[in-house]
Amino acid sequence: MSKSATFKPQQSSRAAAVSWQLAQTLWVGGLWLLQFVVLPAIDQLGLAPLLVQEISARLVPLLVGLAAVGVALQTFALLRSEGLSSLLRDMRGQLLLTVAVMALSYFGVRYQWPDAEYWLRFSYLVMAFCGLLLVLQPVPGQVRGA
Q1: Tens digit of pLDDT for each residue in 56-99?
Q2: Are 42 and 86 in contact (CB under 8 A)?
Q3: Predicted confidence band at 144 (pLDDT cuts at 50, 70, 90)?
C-alpha cells in the first residue's frame, strides 16, 4: 500500500503544533487575563464589591472549564506526537496532568464544599502558574532549539 500523493507527514505534526499553541493561548491567556487584568479593572471602576464577586463567580468556572478542554486538546496533541511515555516522563505531560487534576478538584470542591474559597483560589492559581511554565516548554513535534 502506498500513501497518496497528497499526504504529507509534516502536515500532521504541524497541525498538532498549531492546535497545541492555539489551545495553550486560549486557556493560559484566559486565566491570566481574567485574574490579573479584567477583575482588577472591574474592581477599579468603582462597582459594588458584591457585583465584582458575582462577575468573578460566573467567569472563573467558565475559564476553568475552558482550561480543562484546552488541556485535553494539548494532551491529545502531546500523545500523538510524543507517545504515551511522554505523559509521565516529560515536563509538558506532568504540567498537563497537574492542570487536569486541579481543574477536576476545582469543580469537585466547588460542588461539594462551596465555602472552600481558599482551595478554589489555590487551584486556579496553580493552573495559571502551570500554564505559564507550559508556555516556556517547546511545542511537541518540533525540534528543540529550532
Answers
A1: 999 999 999 999 999 999 999 888 888 887 788 889 999 999 99
A2: no
A3: low
Residue 17 to residues 43, 88, 142, 143, 145, Cα–Cα distance (Å) = 37, 20, 8, 11, 15
Total count of residues recorded for the chain: 146
Q: How far apart are CA 99 and CA 66, in angstroms?
A: 12
| CB-CB neighbours of 141 under 10 Å | 18
Q: Express each pLDDT in 134-143 by its tens digit.
A: 999 999 877 5
What pTM does this model have? 0.84
Give the dihedral sign, CA 54/65/15/91.
positive
CB 90 within 8 A of CB 78: yes
Contacts of 128 (CB under 8 A, 6+ apart): 28, 31, 32, 35
Contact 128, 103 (CB under 8 A): no
